[in-house]
Amino acid sequence: MSVYLELKEKAFKANMRLPEHGLVLFTFGNASAADHENSVFAIKPSGVPYKNLKPDDMVIVDFDGNVVEGTLRPSSDTKTHAVLYKHWHEIGGIVHTHSTYATAWAQSLTDLPILGTTHADHLATDVPCTQPMDDASIQGDYEFETGLQILSEFEKRNLSYKEVSMILVGSHAPFTWGNTPEEAVYQSAVLEEIAKMACLTMQIRPDVPSLKKTLIEKHYRRKHGDEAYYGQG
Fold first, then answer.
1. Looking at residue 202, which CATH number applies to its domain?
2. 90-115 pLDDT, tens per residue?
3. How many structural domains is the chain composed of?
4. 175 bridge partner residues
5. Cα 129 to Cα 125: distance, rounded to the nearest angstrom
6. Per the residue annotation, which of 64, 134, 141, 230 is the catalytic one?
């Protein structure tokens, strides 16, 4: 019997939430759940339709991308997950989708601007979008390089992965993360919704300004930090 049953179950449940929230079609996406104490994570197997998935199908991989347990090939994005887990020690789940609106922003090579309070409720900055990867990286260890590309973008912009839990990989698609796999799924759903809202807003008014700084700070701080007062504590 596997010693990773609980971890596999967490990853399975997170993956099953993706089609439930309309974030994936067919096999377009993956979710993983990490165990930092043992430096492993469970991830969806590559190319297996969600309707056919079972908890035991989840593949256990270490933070260098090596399969530890499982008979199926892990997601093709496994090395990207591995890089992020290895460097960001406080994330417990990662989600990658090709959800329509977030992917459209990624394909436009454009940061997702903070236009309204729904966005500000979740993060106090634009959602960053990377530029396309260089040819040498694409032709090399592509998925590993994608992880490095995300790390580099956060370092370049001086962003904290604890405060900004999503990114648009330019010409590709979004990645999100959280303290738990459930939180990573939540962030993925939020990203898709604010991407949709921004797209519709800019169709109505292409020159719409960014949200006022005072509104950004008010909405972000009432949900985050020591002075938060949203919800029941």
1. 3.40.225.10
2. 999 999 999 999 999 999 999 999 99
3. 1
4. 96, 167
5. 12
6. 230
User: Which tens digit of pLDDT belongs to each residue from 15-57?
Assistant: 999 999 999 999 999 999 999 999 999 999 999 999 999 999 9
Dihedral of the CA atoms 27, 78, 169, 113 (nearest 10)? 80
For the chain, what is the mean pLDDT?
97
pLDDT digits (tens, 9 = 90+) for 137-179: 999 999 999 999 999 999 999 999 999 999 999 999 999 999 9
Containing domain of residue 98, as a range? 5-221
Judging by beta carbons within 10 Å of its beta carbon (0-12, 13-18, 19+), is residue 71 exposed, middle or buried? exposed
Residue of 35, 121, 141, 207 with catalytic role: 121
User: What are 198's two structure tokens?
Assistant: 């921004």
pTM for the structure as a whole: 0.97
The reply to whether 70 falls in a domain is yes
Answer yes or no: 230 catalytic. Answer: yes
φ/ψ of 40, rounded to 5, equals: -135, 165
**Structural contact between residues 14 and 185, judged by C-beta atoms closer than 8 angstroms:** yes
Three-state DSSP at 108 gives coil
Is-catalytic flag, 121? yes
Structural domain contains residue 116? yes
User: Is 126 within the bounds of a domain?
Assistant: yes
> Does residue 64 lie in a domain region?
yes
Strands 174-178 and 93-97: antiparallel
